[in-house]
Amino acid sequence: MELTRLRGFQDLIGPQAQTLAYVEQRARALMERYAIGEIRIPLLERIELYQRSTGETSDIVSKQMYTFTDRDEAGSVLALRPEGTPGVVRAYIEAGLDRSDPEQRFFYSGPMFRRERPQKGRYRQFYQFGVEVFGRADPACDAELLIMIDDLRRDLGLDFQIELNSLGDATCRPAFRAALLEYGRQHWDELCRDCHDRLERNPLRLLDCKIDVRLAEQAPKSLDYLCPECRRHFETLCDLLKAAGVQFVINPRIVRGLDYYMRTTFEVTSSNLGSQNAVVAGGRYDGLVEVLGGASVAGIGFAIGVERVALALHAARAPRAQLPRVALIALGDPAVRKATELARALRGLPLQVELLSTQRSLKAQLKRADKIGANYAVIIGPDELARAAAQLRDLGASSQREVSLDRLASELAGGLAH
Fold first, then answer.
1. Phi and psi angles of residue 79, each rounded to the nearest 5 degrees, phi first
2. CA separation for the pair 243, 367 (Å, rounded)
3. Residue 189's pLDDT is what?
4. What residue ranges define each of the domains in the chain, with the CATH number in brackets?
5. Radius of gyration of the chain (CA)
6. What is the structure's pLDDT at 63?
7. CA–CA separation, 159 vs 154, rounded Å?
């Protein structure tokens, strides 16, 4: 049997992995500026966590989760996490923070798993970088998260569009739900099979159906049913975003595919991608902590699709700062010892340093230096070693000069400054 990777999974090798790491690094740097701490949650949770939070009518729970029965947990059904928010909320409650210190700000990163139909930008194992904020019900918190996303967009040099909606709350949402239910019943013969199955249980699913798009566009809009408090919240959010210079559009079809959202919901799309163009999504979930057994604490968050942002970077050919690369070439065993010592010293500079194979000729090592995109080659042979020197070759300018070994680091540092 030929051993190959599973359908919908991918191997990330070299530049692909580096681009994902770059997106995560930029996001992590942003978290420090916004004073948001890290949380790490398990890959496995009991299936009930997602049934009670994400919702049994959601596509994630009804169709997409990877589950199995655990022999060591009294027959418990476990699930590979399909999203991050429920696990973060569970950890928050289990640590007692919902009662002892409700206002918390966390970020998480790592793989998620959904058994979706694979296509470019949609994989069965994918990576998310997410933020969850607890204990804040004010629209200024909603605005801060969206400004944060816009900061990341600018940092990466990408063009994103923020799309906003409000789903209302327990006061006004029932009227909107009833209007959608009635609308769905009136158009029953035009609905797809999935919408038939979930109409009575959760009519909001009509709005994010990928098949009944035309019907969704003509359906009742949640903004028309907002109570005064929810309308005030949404209008304040829009005003704060305008004050911060964040561009956005209002999209009444955004309900998100998860049951726990209320009030603010949003998606962020990239113009550089195809049909899978959503790169960030999130919203407010003020009732979720209580649903999962905690105190009545407000919450809001978002998740970034790291692969999709990486694809957007590639499509836009967005410039990305990279450390200059140095190829160390040693000719002969004595030179290898010195080059090994030198490599460690040079890695103290903002450089990528690779010691090339000493079993190759000088010509072959120079070809390798060119192949890996090295900016400089440092060549040490018997003659250079005798003079305590190295040949420093600028591969871009095709120039070469001899530099003493004790000045090599400062010479390279000087080149970086220019």
1. -130, 140
2. 54
3. 76
4. 15-172+226-316 (3.30.930.10), 325-417 (3.40.50.800)
5. 27
6. 80
7. 8
